[in-house]
Amino acid sequence: YPQPLQLRVSALLYPLLGACFWASVAGYKPVIIVHGLFDSSEDFKNLKMFINQSHPGTNVTVIDLFDRSASLEPMWKQVEGFKAAIYPIMQNAADGVHFICYSQGGLVCRGILSTLSEHNVNSFISLSSPQAGQYGDTDYLKYLFPQFVKSNLYHLCYTGVGQRISICNYWNDPHHRDLYVNSSDYLALLNSERANPNATEWKKNFLKIKKLVLIGGPDDGVITPWQSSQFGFYDNNETVIEMQEQDLFLRDVFGLKTLAARGDLIICSVPGVQHVFWHSNETVFHTCMEKWLE
Fold it and tell me: Residue 94: phi, psi to the nearest 5?
C-alpha cells in the first residue's frame, strides 16, 4: 500500500531537520575563501557546494575583492583589503573560522595571519600556493610579461616598479638570491629572509592557527617548482630542496618547525591535478580539506 502522505513527508523532513540540528549542534565554523591570480569569487561554486554537502549549514564566504586583473595589485595592499573584509566575519565567530586560500591567495592569507594579532583562524588550508616563491616559465608569465622569461624577469621584478606588481612580490630567482632578499617587499619579509623588526610578533600571530594544511601536486603546471606549495624550493642549481631541509624551516623563522613538532603541519600531495582545477576537484576536497573544516 502507498504510504500516507504524512509518513512520506516525515521520511523526507526528519533527515533534513536532523541535518540542520546537527549543523547547529556541531556548530561548523565559518569558512573564508581567498582567491588567486586572475580569479574571482565566481570560480569557487564547486568548492562551496562540496563544503555545504559535507558540513550542512556552514557559512562559506568567498571574499569578492581584487578580482581578475585587480589581483595584480601589490600584495600588502591586498592583505589590507582582504583583512578589512574578513575581520568582521572573525568577530562574529566565537569559535573561530577556517581559511581556504588558493594560489596567490595563500600568500595573501599568510600576510593576514602574520600581521593580525587578534585573528581566530583554526585551519589554514593553503591550496596550491607558491609559499616558498615562484620561478617558472608559465602561461601566466608569458601573458603578463611577453618580453621576459624566468631567467631575466629579475631585471623587472627586483625594482621599485616591479614590486608594485603582485607576482613580483613573491618572484624568487634562485640565481639572484641577494637581489631577491634585498628587493622583495613581501615574501622575503614574510619568510624573515631579510631582517624584519616584526619577525617575533608575526611568528607569534601565525602560530595562533591550529592546523596548517599544505596542498599541492606534481602535475600542477603553474606553481614552479610545484614543491613551493609545501615550502620546498630550488637551490642555485635548480635542484629542489624539500621543506624540512630549508633554512626557514630549520631556523623556525616563522613557526613551520613548531607546527610540525606540535603535529599541526599536514602535507597533502595529489597527482594528476592541474593548477586551475584544485578548487573544483572533489577528490582533493575529500582527501585534503574536509576533515580540517569541523
Answer: -60, -35
pLDDT class for 25, splitting at 50, 70, 90?
very low
Using the predicted structure, report yes or no on whether residue 16 has a pLDDT greater than 70. Answer: no
The average confidence (pLDDT) of the chain is 93
Are 292 and 125 within 8 A, CB to CB?
yes
Active site residues: 103, 220, 275
* 31-292: CATH, from 3.40.50.1820, 3.40.50.1220, 3.10.310.50, 2.60.40.10: 3.40.50.1820
Give the 3-state DSSP-derived string for 219-241, with helices as H, strands as E and coil as C: CCCCCCCHHHHHCCEECCCCCEE
Report the half-sphere exposure of 41 (CA within 13 A, side-chain side). 10
For the stretch 260-289, pLDDT in tens is 999 999 999 999 999 999 999 999 999 999
